[in-house]
Design brief:
The complex is a heterodimer of chains A (488) and B (467). With 488 residues, chain A is an alpha/beta fold. Chain A is built from 15 helices and 13 strands. The longest helix of chain B is centred in the middle third of the chain and has 25 residues, at 192-216. The chains are: A alpha/beta (488), B alpha+beta (467).
Amino acid sequence: MTTHVELRAAYADSVTLLQVSRTLQDEPGVAAAQVAMATALNCDVLDQMGFVVPAGATPNDMVVAIRLTDDAAPEALDRALAALAAALAPPPPPQGALTTQPARTTRAALAGSRRDAGPRLGARRERAGGGDGRARGRPRRDGLQRQRALEQTSWRSSARPPSGAARDGARLRHRGGRRRRPRLRQRLRSRPGRHRGRLRNRLPAADDPSAPGGVGVTHALGVGGRDLSVEVAGASTREALRRLDADPGVELVVLVSKPPAPEVAADLETYAAGLATPVEMALLGPGRPDLTTAADGVLRRLGGRCPTGRWWAGPARPPGRGCGGSSSAGRRRSHGDRHRGAGPDSLQHPARGRRRARLGGSLTAARHTMVDFGDDALTAGRAHPMIDPTLRTEHLARAAADPETGVVLLDLVLGHGAEPDPATTLASAIARAREAQAVPVIVSVIGTDLDPQHLARQLEALNDAGAELHFSNARATRRALELLGGVR
Amino acid sequence: MFDERLGAGPPVVGVGADVFADALEQQAVAVTRVDWRPPMPGTEADLAAVAADPLRPPANARALAQMLAVQAMLVDVGPAAEVLGLQRGEFLHAGPPLAWERASGPMRGALMGGAALEGLVDDPADAPALFEAGRDVSLEPCHHRAAVGPMAGVVTPSMWVFVLEDPATGRRTHCTLNEGLGKVLRYGAYAPEVLDRLRWMSAVLGPLLRDAVRSAGPVDVTGILTQMLQMGDEAHNRNRAGTLMLLRDLSPAMAEGGHPSADVAAALRFIGGNDHFFLNLAMPACKLALDAARDVAGSTMVVAMARNGTDFGIQVSGTGDAWFTGPAQLADGLYLGDFGPADANPDIGDSAITETAGIGGFAMATAPAIVRFVGGSVPDALATTRRMHQITLGENPRWQVPVLEFQGTPTGIDVSAVCRTGILPQINTGMAGRLAGVGQVGAGLVNPPAEIFPAALAALAARVRAR
């Protein structure tokens, strides 16, 4: 068995490297392959795969690790390395690239695309320049002060909300497909708010494919994941609310956020009450309505039909023993991910809930475990689990094999940018996991029938694998607790 | 809204993983992708501090506007002793401050020739002792005396200089008369014919030009620059159209000035035979404009780039008179005759003031005729000008590049943009011989040493934090 591990002074983003790794894994004679930047997390993964990462590797090094099968042809490694070189080669430059220059910053890109439209703007978006000045990667906690200063500068000087502003028409991942309705309403979100897709098109079509259900959203403005913290105090949210209020086309503003600082939330509520445009608050947290309740409220207010929250109670002919039921006595754990704040109080969230309380490398804890596989710590040098579900799939197998596991709760987010066919891997992982013991697996599916993954097919695959499916994360979570016997 | 008005969607820019841009393109939305790179190492905190400085945007807008408002008029020509008050034994030189001990070959050669020209020594070979002793001589950058000088940039009291003035403010800048190419003082040559030419320039050419300028009236140098940029000159290594336009404006007055016709003919022949004659007007015009952008608190705009053959230095609007220096680099280019890289001296001269003002290497796209001279290609030239737009604050509406749809030249180098993008200003330049007395050995492309921009940024950030 030949194993090849090398370090290269090269960089590629995690999504590219995921694709490269998959290409290598498909090469004849390759038993296992992983190409990744040598972050601590990726080194752990390589270690688990049985590769020895050379000492002194830093996150700036690219690790190429290939293991060949015992019966691999002698030239298999060369072929694999050639495939690697081809996969990493930059695409040929488009015509005219010799005389053009790729924009190195958002500012330059914006200036370039505006040149076509008219005279160059003298004052450009400062956030673009400022934000670009950040260190590689997303801002970390110690950058809070900096973020606040940048946000304030950017709001003062830019014509539009500064970051994450997505406008209607094209869709990225969880924004999902949407049906345009004549009424305009706008919504703010505070990163990450993954489940906002449910606000629109919340699967009325799954109930009745011919129904024109759902409501339209014209603007989704990202205001930053820390905007409602004490330090930033809602600076961007307030400004965005002010601008939306000034737009006569806006009928209703919905503000979605993970749990805010209470004083910031109170201030914002006061501020919103003074606006001419109604603002529906969907601020999550203990004692507050969950996102499903908030979404229902929005729909009711707009005179829309509230989806029934239909769910599939496992397969008609379960491959195992069905998925209901209880678990062994004693400590029970529920494994799930990313229903930030949407869940009832009874779930402990070691990764998030008690802020910095961290799980160990095994990602397990004595009681209920909630792992956010999209957390900074688990995405360093790796793609988000919506794109690369490897870590989550591995964890699912471990959790299901644990006799103390009472129920497994997952979410699955569809949309542009997410995995093209996530159910294929997830369904087989669920089926495999339930072979040993038929632990209930509950999946909240966030998607619409306009998503490119083909919602019905995704549901079918998961259902066939024995998963119980919900279109509301809150309901899925309640269902998981119910299965645990209502443990508080 | 993308889908309601055809082609009227907001610009979409993709940064980071391509998966998002791909998803949009699959939905027929045009995406401009950013070739994202980390900033220059170690500049992250300073970049954040400067980016968040509330003074910065208005300060940069003001610095740029003040620069662009300047009109450079050639109003007079006179000896440096009179015009600049240069005393016997005072030498101006190119680049940031420099002592004789650290001076490179061509700088020493030019200083030696200058000492002989002023009669401080009989033989240039005796001059090193004079400079080593340092008692009767002093060295000072041209930039400190409202002047600029190409290559070694040595100015002595008897040399005649152009006087440029901004009529709105009365501010002035100065530059010597260009000697031509080859064996010339500014490239470090000091042979007898070099000094003879300089004496003729002071005795004949200077007074002729002075009388012509005074009688024909101020010459609009900024206006000539506007035209020459549309005629294939980039005003650093190609000044052919500019030189001819200057002759057009001054030759009638030169002919009518009452000077001996042989002198007039010699002067016309000298100017017409030296395609670089206008460089010594382009440079002070650029300095006059950039000086208007100096000392704006919070501005990250570079107001001078200059080299003395040993150090490359920049000055920045928001940091006063401080020089940020690093080792001057060797140009990459083509060599004359049998000269090769081993014969070349590191980058030298104040002429990078043209790039600082957005022309020269920054306007390479407008001068395809010279790209081979500096060892480049036409696509390189177009790409270079476009790249420079990524590190500049704006465009010069007067100075336009026809082949780029009359886009204004990239103007106002932003220290923070250089640090953020890692893109260094592109300079095209002549190369002086390494040894004193050799003269020009080639021409090529060169960049500043990268470290001076983080140093300038750190100084800007320190001021932000102190506010």
